[in-house]
Amino acid sequence: MWIKHLTNFFTAIYTNPTGRVVLLTLYYLAIIVGLIIMYGRGNFTTPKFVYQGF
Amino acid sequence: MKRMPHLAAAIVSFFVLTLALIGLNDYAQSIEQEYVNALAPLNLSQTLNGITLQRAALYRPDLLLVYGSSEMTVENTPYQAEKFFATYPTGFTVFNVVNLGAGSLTMAEDLAALGPDLKGKKVVISITPAPFTFSALTEEYYAGNYSRLHAYGLIFSPYLSTGLKFAAAQRLLGHPKTLQNDPFFEFTLNHMVDTSIQNQALYVIMWPLGELQTEIMQLQDHAEALFYLRDHSVDPDVKRIPQQIDWSKDFQDALAEQKLHTQSNPYGIEDWRWKLFQGKSEVPYPAGSGNAAFLNFLKTSEEWPDFKVLLDVLHELGAKPLILSRPVNGGYWTAVGVSEDAQNAYYIKLHAIVDPYDMTLVDYRQYTNDIYFSMDSVAHTSRYGWVYVDQTLDQFFHGNLH
User: What is the ipTM of this complex?
Assistant: First the structure.
């Protein structure tokens, strides 16, 4: 029952032009945030070496 | 907007993302400013390989950035600058950006990435005669000190001249292993071998991508600093104990302690190092027998052109550096057949390169024959030598070095 209410709710928003843009914006932002979480962390490591400058 | 909801959504998303990243940048900078004093003695790898903590340190009135190599760390002694100034006795401490095997080129990349934040700022560039006179820095050392963020910060810097960037590109191309997994960067560098119109045009086309990548890496650097502070308990307050330094006493105590560690040879080489020296049974070598090799290395060392790039970066960004060389370990080098005249050639060439830049240069030449200044042939600073260095750093910070 609640799924039907939810579906009707989103359908009502999506059929509204402004609401559609808002939903799409949230969708794009979610993708961007997901990509940042998955691939955004930098790699600052450097190869190890044995110092022999003595 | 009605007909292009996806385009409108994409534009709004981009705008929101940009605002969020600007907010992240500002937030991270404020946190880094708050914690940088506490992070200074930790010698984090992020300090070395990133740029944001160094940038935060530049804006602290009580931190002096020191860029250097093994001469800053090998001798584990309370006279090491980081420990000597740990409680801000005269109002400052050092912020070390030092690592074993660091050379002029990686320092140049690092400082270039700081950009206009360097303008008018005091920084210390610590060097030893070794890579200029007899011991080339290996590819492993360069790779171990290489930071992609720094290299991009140099090559794509909007604040450095085209000539300098193209000259630096030539130097970076001499280390192909660090470019293996970076085809975009390698392609860019390969087209910076000369300043022809085509190459300059190609650089202009590549620049936006390079600059975007640099900005992304800086944001990632901020994130790493924030992650570190999230995962570790760091007290931003540091202990400050103002006190008068009794330099005479420190010189006396350090010398006495150094003598206790150099009893196996007459050259001031520390006992544990002398033990490892393969050629000690043949010392002293015939006078002058080592001159040719020494002078040839001095003439051809790859460290000189890298050092020139470093000086050019400092000059173009308006920094106020102290170039702090260590003295040649005269007693040792004479014993292995390098005459005083040949040793002096290092100082002459060093001054010939640095003096035109009107930068403060301290070479401790007068201590060349003080056998206790260095602990080994590479001129790593001994306990006793450290007191001289500390005194110089103190004078430089307070504007008393001329």
Answer: 0.83
- Contact between B38 and B234 (Cβ < 8 Å): yes
Give the tens place of pLDDT for each residue, B48-107.
999 999 999 999 999 999 999 999 999 999 999 999 999 999 999 999 999 999 999 999
Q: Do B376 and A44 touch (CB under 8 A)?
A: no
The length of chain B is 402
Q: Is A21 in Cβ contact with B220 (below 8 Å)?
A: no
Q: What is the pTM of this model?
A: 0.95
How far A39 CA sits from the closest chain B CA (Å)?
11
Residue ranges making up the domain that contains B106: 5-397
Instruction: Collapse the DSSP code of B122 into the 3-class scheme (helix H, G, I; strand E, B; otherwise coil) and give the result.
Output: strand
Question: Which of B317, B356, B396 lies closest to B124, judged by CA?
Answer: B396
Question: Does residue B147 sit at the A interface (CB-CB below 8 Å)?
Answer: yes
Taking an 8 Å cut-off on Cβ atoms, the answer to whether B220 and A42 are in contact is yes
> What is d(CA B66, CA B86) in angstroms, rounded to the nearest whole number?
14
Transcribe B33-86 into DSSP letters.
HHHHHHHGGG--HHHHH-SHHHHHHHT-TTEEEEEE-GGGTSS-STTSHHHHTT
Q: Based on the structure, what is the number of domains in chain B?
A: 1
Helix (H, G, I), strand (E, B) or coil at B264: coil
Cα–Cα separations (whole angstroms), residue A7 to A3, A14, B9: 6, 10, 21
CA gap B177, B352 in Å, rounded: 32
d(CA B95, CA B17): 34
Give the list of residues 6+ apart from residue B368 with CB closer than 8 angstroms, or none: B327, B328, B329, B330, B340, B343
What DSSP letter does each residue of B150-168 carry, written as one string?
Answer: HHHHHHT-TTS-HHHHHHH
| In a domain? residue B402 | no
Q: For residue B279, what are its two tokens?
A: 């050629």
CB atoms within 10 A of CB A15: 9
Burial code (b: 16+ CB inside 10 Å, e: under 16) for B51-76 equals: bbbbbbbbebebbbbbbbbbbbbbbe
